[in-house]
Specification:
- It is a single chain.
- By secondary structure, this protein is an alpha/beta fold.
- About 35% of the residues lie in helices and about 20% in strands.
- The strands form 3 sheets. It has a 7-stranded mixed beta sheet, with helices on one face. A 6-stranded parallel beta sheet has the order 3-2-1-4-5-6, with helices on both faces.
- A hairpin with a 3-residue loop joins strand 11 and strand 12.
- The chain binds 1,4-dihydronicotinamide adenine dinucleotide (NAI).
- 1,4-dihydronicotinamide adenine dinucleotide binds next to helix 1.
- Homotetramer.
- This is Inositol 2-dehydrogenase/D-chiro-inositol 3-dehydrogenase.
């Protein structure tokens, strides 16, 4: 049976997920789209013959729509996710689950009250081959207990609307989710160290930033904001290489390319992630990151943003995971 999917938000990643579902993956089909702007849905309707809505709630309540994908900006995730839960329909929402921990908790509570696992959050790094290989090596125990994680990110550029807190909410949020999953641990405290800023930044962005997370088992994580990851364990080191590109030899130089576009870097992970969601949502299950994972990420992000201005080590207090989310 084909899962009939409605997509709310037809911007950059919304369009990419629609292409992915209709042209690459199997078992699902986008049959309806909604956006507050008319241009996005119109272009998609012309290409795929889908129904269009101005209002996400109308799309969710369309009886022909079996499952929902939310790709609006983060501040507009909460309402459609809650509406999908109320309608009893599976919902895949892009990260973040919502922009505040209080909103995320509201979603967690609504899902628990409904008694059905319906929400998956788009933390696609858990589906990335490299991260899964590192996790398998750590889980094998061959390298001993993880002690320190070094993670680095080099963004070629961001535009002037990108501000200091966005380095956490938009960028490090992926690391926040994937790293505790990688080492099977929970965060306890957050700290941000601000070195002198580069001349290439603007007045509202402190860049670079060094984020330090400490886990309950005492592992120290240092994020020079993301993508590559090296785990120092007591008996060895596990380092994830950058995806391979051809090495060229010319004019006395050996050169290799660097992937600077996140869409290409994680293209396989997005495909595997959404295929898994289509397969599991069709069976009334959720395999991927849950609403509780979205809440944990939001609590951690809030502590990091607080640490950006306080300069102090901020505690992270999430409370016990509800039994509902125990795997
Ligand atoms: P975008 O700004 O390109 O597109 C957002 C679309 O949502 C626009 O077409 C806008 O008109 C529409 N929209 C806004 N409010 C709406 C509402 N209330 N109802 C219906 N439509 C509404 O944004 P982009 O880059 O596509 O990002 C969307 C989400 O995806 C964000 O949460 C972002 O963090 C996430 N994202 C995740 C990535 C990942 O690696 N997993 C990568 C890029 C984005």
């Amino acid at each position: 049976m084909t899962l009939r999917i409605g997509v709310i938000g037809t911007g950059a990643i919304g369009k990419d997920h629609i292409r992915r579902i209709n042209e690459v993956l199997t078992g699902g089909k986008v049959i309806a789209v909604a956006d507050i702007c008319e241009a996005g849905p119109k272009a998609i309707a012309e290409k795929y013959g889908v129904k269009t809505y101005k209002n996400g709630a109308d799309l969710i309540n369309d009886p022909e729509v079996d499952a929902i994908v939310v790709t609006t900006p983060g501040f507009a995730h909460k309402d459609p996710v809650l509406q999908a839960i109320a309608a009893g329909k599976p919902v895949f929402t892009e990260k973040p689950l919502s922009t505040t921990a209080a909103d995320c908790k509201e979603i967690v509570n609504a899902e628990i009250a409904g008694g059905k696992h319906l929400v998956q959050v788009g933390f696609m790094r858990r589906y990335d081959k490299g991260y899964n290989q590192v996790k398998a090596m750590l889980d094998s125990g061959e390298f001993g207990v993880p002690l320190i994680l070094h993670c680095t990110h080099r963004n070629p550029e961001v535009d002037t609307s990108y501000t200091t807190p966005m380095a956490v909410h938009d960028t490090a949020i992926h690391e926040i989710d994937v790293l505790h999953w990688l080492i099977d641990d929970e965060y306890e405290s957050a700290q941000v160290i601000m070195p002198v800023s580069t001349k290439y930044t603007h007045s509202k962005l402190k860049d670079p930033q060094l984020m330090i997370l400490r886990t309950k088992k005492g592992i120290c994580i240092e994020i020079e904001v993301f993508v590559n990851c090296e785990v120092v364990c007591e008996d060895g080191v596990v380092k994830m290489p950058a995806p391979s590109t051809p090495i060229t030899r010319k004019n006395g130089l050996l050169s290799t390319g660097i992937e600077t576009n996140w869409k290409n870097r994680f293209i396989d992970a997005y495909d595997v992630e959404l295929q898994d969601w289509i397969n599991s949502a069709g069976k009334g299950e959720i395999n991927g990151p849950t609403a509780w994972d979205g809440y944990l990420a939001s609590m951690t992000a809030d502590a990091l943003v607080k640490a950006q201005t306080s300069g102090a080590i901020e505690p992270i207090t999430t409370g016990e995971m509800p039994e509902f989310y125990a795997k």
